[in-house]
Amino acid sequence: MAPRKLAAGNWKMNGTLASLAQIDQLLADAVPGCDVLICPPATLIHAVAAKGIATGGQDCHANASGAHTGDIAAAQLKDAGASHVILGHSERRTDHAETDAQIAAKSVAAHEAGLIAVICVGETETQRDSGATLDVISAQLAGSVPDCATAANTVIAYEPVWAIGTGRTPTDAQIAEVHALMRERLSERFADGADFSLLYGGSVKPGNAAEIFAIAHVNGALVGGASLKAADFAPIVAAL
Ligand code: PEP
């Protein structure tokens, strides 16, 4: 099985019911040669899923239920219509001090609930400048991806922290280097490591998507800002 191509939109803490019009427009505009996923805020998961587009959460708790005010369980995401969940996004690693071990535990919970985990890894600018990128990515993969991961239940997104929302992107060679490393590490550890979908994320726009998608082992994108408007996201989907 070759890695599936995936264009995933992360709406973060943006969007209200009025934003559903963007889904309608996306469904009308995009002619996907790939899987298209929208990860809206939890308040919109049910409504987005009802449009018939693949829908994901942006986080889940590692526990199945219980006294965790404000958190959401993987099974609740599934119940609302989600098929995927983003885990370990750098904003969660930073804002909520999430560790690799916590992300791995959340991934297990996601898998047990029947969700596909989109596990994010990525170096900070300081780490890149100090030459630590490949070590950081290797460590995050080792720590965040659980042993029960398979190509069918897990997608990996490489998102350099310094490229998220900044308009800056790594060079093609830098993206290629990290994606080749991720493929190698996954293949060393998992029998189907060659089949995991590997996404690039960080300032993907209509103008740079095709070039990024042409890089070896880039099987799609995790898109933040440019996924909020169908007029921006549809051409990215079309480029994959
Ligand atoms: C993200 O937050 O996952 C992301 C990639 O954001 P942006 O596309 O806005 O850089």
Automatic annotation (TrEMBL):
Substrate binds at residues 10-12, 165, 203, 224-225. It comes from Paracoccus laeviglucosivorans. GO terms for biological process: gluconeogenesis; glyceraldehyde-3-phosphate biosynthetic process; glycerol catabolic process; glycolytic process. Keywords: Cytoplasm, Gluconeogenesis, Glycolysis, Isomerase. GO terms for molecular function: triose-phosphate isomerase activity. Pathway: Carbohydrate metabolism; erythritol degradation; Carbohydrate degradation; glycolysis; D-glyceraldehyde 3-phosphate from glycerone phosphate: step 1/1; Carbohydrate biosynthesis; gluconeogenesis. The keyword Isomerase applies. This is Triosephosphate isomerase. The gene is tpiA. It is an enzyme of class 5 (isomerase). It comes from the Bacteria.
